[in-house]
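user: can you give me the structure for this one chain? tokens are fine.
assistant: on it. calling the predictor now.
[tool input]
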Amino acid sequence: MSNLDEAIKSLLSIEGATGAAIVDVSSGMALAQGGNPGFDLGVAAAGNSNVVSAKLRTMRDLGIKDEIEDILITLSSQYHLINILNTKETSGLFIYLVLDRNYANLALARHKLKGVSAEVSI
């Protein structure tokens, strides 16, 4: 788990980050999580696994063969980034990152998230 914990620390060091989790899509369980976004991160992780599953199912039904990179949900005060981990070792996992819109640079956060996601291993 140390690599997952290190990934959470790296994610939380992104400017504006208030919460982060690495989540199993099939169960909705967070394998690692950290931060304090102002809501229950475990419940949000489980809910977002439904978002990822629904999108994957829709892509399959449409015959779309591409891989999802990111899903972005914008709220009035936050950005919620879902980054699907697509390596053989991390298949079935995603990173969930919560950003405060007042302090985050979305482009920079996505760039840094991509770097962290490339380093995640279990």
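assistant: here you go. The chain has a mean pLDDT of 95. Helices lie at 2-12, 41-62, 106-119.
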